[in-house]
Write a structure and sequence with these properties.
- With about 300 residues, the protein is α/β, with parallel strands linked by helices.
- The chain folds into two domains: about 220 residues, Rossmann fold (3-Layer(aba) Sandwich); about 70 residues, Orthogonal Bundle (Arc Repressor Mutant, subunit A).
- Helix content is about 40%, strand content about 20%.
- A nine-stranded mixed β-sheet has the order 3-2-1-4-5-7-6-8-9, with helices on both faces.
- The chain starts with a helix and ends with a strand.
C-alpha cells in the first residue's frame, strides 16, 4: 500500500477529476467507461478510491451503464473489494466492474474492446510510476472513446522522447512533474480530445491540498524551478516560458499565448493573462494596439 505524499497527491487529483468527469459523461452518453490500469500497483488503494467516486453516481446511473475496467498483474485480492463497493452503491446493474489479471499492456486494450468502449466517453488512469511504462499501443487504445481522456504517470527521469511516444491520437497533451526534492520526480501526463476537459484538469491540478514537501515542476522550464501547490502559483517558470516562446515566434496574440500556457506548460490560461499584464506594465514586451483592454486579439511582441 502506497501512502507517500506523492501517492496521496495522485489519488486526490484522480478523485477530483473523476468527480467532475463522471456526472458530465453520464449526462452526455448512455454508456461510460473508466479504465484503471496497474490497479494492483498500490495494493488497490487508488482503484478503490476511484470505485467509490463511481458508486456515488447511483442516481445518474439508472438507465445508463457506468463501467470500470481494472487491469493489473494479479487482481485476485482486489476484485471482491471493488465489487463490494459496486454492490453497496444501490446503482444496480447500471454500475459494473470488470477486473482482468495478467498485466495492463496485454489486457487493457482487449478489455476496452470487450465492454464496447468505442465512441463513448472514456477516461483512463494508468499509474506506471513503479513499473515498466505501458506500450504506446496500450495508451492509444483509450482514444477509441469519444470524447476520451487519460491520466498517465511515468517513472522519475522519463525522457522527453519516451513521453512523445504517447502523443499519437491526443490533440491536447500536457505534463507536470511531481517532486519532493531536487531529484527528478514522477511525471504526470494528461491527454484529452476536449479543450474544456483540459481546463478542468488544470483547475484540479492547482486546487489539490498541499502535502508535505510535494511540489510541481514544469518539464519545459530550463531552470527546473519547484512550484508550491497553490491556487495562485508562482509565475516565474511561466514568465520564462512565455518570453522564450515569444523570442522564437516573434509575436503572438493573447489568445495564442493563453493556449500555449494551457497546453505546453503546467499553468492555466488565466495564469498567462496575469503574467502578460505584468510583462506589459514592466515594458518587457510590447502590445498592439498599445492601449485598451488586453483582449484575445491583442498582439504581444518580444
Amino acid at each position: 500500500m502506497s501512502s507517500s505524499p506523492i501517492a496521496t497527491v495522485k489519488r486526490e487529483l484522480l478523485v477530483r477529476h473523476l468527480e467532475a468527469w463522471a456526472p458530465a459523461a453520464l449526462h452526455r452518453a448512455r454508456r461510460v467507461i473508466y479504465a484503471h490500469g496497474y490497479a494492483d500497483a498500490d495494493g488497490g488503494v487508488s482503484a478503490e478510491a476511484a470505485m467509490r467516486v463511481l458508486a456515488e453516481q447511483s442516481d445518474l446511473v439508472r438507465g445508463r451503464e457506468l463501467i470500470m475496467v481494472a487491469t493489473g498483474d494479479d487482481l485476485g485480492a482486489i476484485d471482491p473489494r471493488l465489487k463490494t463497493i459496486s454492490a453497496e452503491s444501490g446503482a444496480g446493474a447500471g454500475l459494473a466492474v470488470h477486473t482482468i489479471s495478467g498485466g495492463t499492456d496485454g489486457r487493457l486494450p482487449v478489455g476496452l474492446k470487450a465492454v464496447g468502449a468505442q465512441r463513448v466517453p472514456v477516461l483512463g488512469f494508468l499509474d506506471a510510476s513503479g513499473s515498466e511504462p505501458p506500450a504506446p499501443a496500450t495508451v492509444a487504445a483509450l482514444t477509441a472513446g469519444k470524447p476520451s481522456e487519460m491520466l498517465l504517470v511515468l517513472p522519475p527521469g522519463s525522457s522527453a522522447s519516451s513521453v512523445d511516444a504517447y502523443r499519437a491520437g491526443w490533440p491536447l497533451f500536457t505534463q507536470v512533474e511531481l517532486a519532493d526534492s531536487e531529484e527528478p520526480g514522477e511525471l504526470l501526463v494528461y491527454a484529452t480530445t476536449a479543450g474544456k476537459s483540459l481546463e478542468g484538469f488544470k483547475e484540479a491540478l492547482w486546487s489539490v491540498d498541499e502535502f508535505a514537501g510535494v511540489r510541481y515542476r514544469d518539464p519545459g522550464d530550463p531552470e527546473r524551478h519547484l512550484i508550491d501547490i497553490s491556487l495562485t502559483p508562482h509565475p516565474g517558470p511561466l514568465r520564462r516560458e512565455l518570453l522564450a516562446h515569444l523570442a522564437q515566434a516573434g509575436e503572438a496574440t493573447v489568445t495564442e499565448l493563453r493556449t500555449f500556457a494551457l497546453t505546453e506548460t503546467v499553468y492555466r490560461a488565466a495564469d498567462a493573462t496575469r503574467v502578460l499584464h505584468t510583462l506589459v506594465d514592466a515594458g518587457t514586451v510590447t502590445r498592439r494596439p498599445s492601449h485598451g483592454r488586453l483582449g484575445g486579439d491583442v498582439v504581444i511582441s518580444a
